[in-house]
TrEMBL record:
Keywords: Signal. The keyword Signal applies. Residues 1-19 form the signal peptide. It comes from Rhodovastum atsumiense. PANTHER family: ABC TRANSPORTER SUBSTRATE-BINDING PROTEIN, SPERMIDINE/PUTRESCINE-BINDING PERIPLASMIC PROTEIN. This is Extracellular solute-binding protein. InterPro entries: SBP. Gene3D superfamilies: Periplasmic binding protein-like II (3.40.190.10).
Length: 337
């Protein structure tokens, strides 16, 4: 046998062995609830006998290009998921192979994504300074409840809250925001509150930190951050679930993954309501599998966005894809006045 033939045989066998040798790799979003997701999904799935490791990725679409060389399953926000699905960077799901679409809440079951958890932006306040239970309309009533107000420095979420604070029902918010009249109404409402606003952003200075520092009396804030701040009795921050803004994070399978069957098994496992039922206790997040709320303790139910979603507004990703640039420019101009 010639050296050339031996080399060709070695090359032919080396590539597939290398592809199969990599353990299933699940990429979690850096800065997100990494430890909570590891405890809820990764470690229990590892116990089923399938080797699995985690990596972290930066948010956004660009990190998904050529991702099959590194990752098999990725955690994606709704906007990135929609863009990745359209661009063919993630697989279209075979729902019959992963437990069925009907076991997941409809807002969390899409063409390319299976819901991993729900997170929410809520109205929060310091109970030691204000013992009542304010609403978004009270948020604007400075005469009744004096004090600074915290809002995220972004049109997304803030404009919805402005309309909720003007008495608009959650089901009507996006219908109004699609019109010039509705947008004008939201900005007029922000005009009324402008002297009292303290802005926060997602990069390390969120609403929970404003409350902790005593910079505001009440604020919009990630519900998870508020719930975790309250653990151990360190703080007494209220959570107003009426008018919460709910967003879904999902699992998706990377296009071309060499571990496609293991990735399917992971999604099948991750959609089990018994698995997702751990989310409130472990990470103060909401489950999106139907039935996952059954059997939760009162303490766990009290921090779950999905348990408390009766008067929720689910963030409309299609609206923001269509109107984000227009409203973003207007918001930036308004803030910089």
């Amino acid at each position: 046998m010639t050296r050339a033939l031996i080399a060709a045989i070695l090359i032919a066998f080396a590539a597939p062995v290398h592809a199969e040798a990599r353990d299933l790799t699940v990429a979690l979003v850096a800065g997100g609830p990494v430890q909570g997701l590891r405890q809820t999904y990764i470690l229990p799935f590892l116990a089923t006998g399938t080797p699995v490791v985690t990596a972290t990725r930066q948010p956004g679409l660009e990190t998904l290009r050529d991702a099959a060389a590194r990752w098999d399953v990725v955690q994606l926000g709704a906007a990135t998921l929609a863009a990745a699905c359209q661009a063919g960077l993630v697989e279209k799901l075979d729902w019959g192979a992963i437990g069925g679409r009907d076991r997941i809440l409809p807002q969390a079951a899409t063409e390319c994504g299976q819901g991993a958890f729900a997170r929410a932006t809520v109205l929060s306040w310091d109970r030691e300074k204000f013992p009542g239970t304010p609403t978004w309309q009270d948020f604007w009533d400075i005469a009744k409840v004096p004090g600074k107000r915290g809002l995220r420095r972004s049109p997304r979420g803030t404009l919805e809250i402005a309309l909720l604070g003007d008495g608009v029902a959650p089901n009507d918010v996006y219908r109004l925001l699609r019109t010039e009249e509705g947008s004008d109404r939201a900005f007029r409402r922000l005009d009324q509150l402008a002297p009292y606003i303290v802005w926060w952003d997602a990069a390390g200075r969120d609403g929970a930190r404003l409350l902790t520092a005593g910079e505001v009396l009440m604020t919009s804030a990630p519900s998870q951050a508020i719930a975790l701040a309250n653990r151990g009795g360190a703080h007494s921050f209220g959570l107003q679930w009426a008018g919460e803004l709910v967003e879904i994070e999902s699992w998706a399978i990377v296009k071309g993954s060499p571990n496609h069957e293991a990735a399917r098994r992971f999604l099948d496992f991750a959609g089990d309501p018994k698995v997702q039922a751990r989310l409130p206790a472990v990470a103060a997040l909401g489950a999106v599998a139907k039935g996952a709320q059954e059997g939760l303790s009162p303490e766990q139910s009290a921090v779950s966005p999905t348990v408390n979603s009766g008067a929720a507004l689910f963030v409309d990703e299609a609206f923001w894809r269509e109107n984000g640039e227009r409203l973003g420019k207007r918001f930036d101009t308004w803030v910089s006045r």
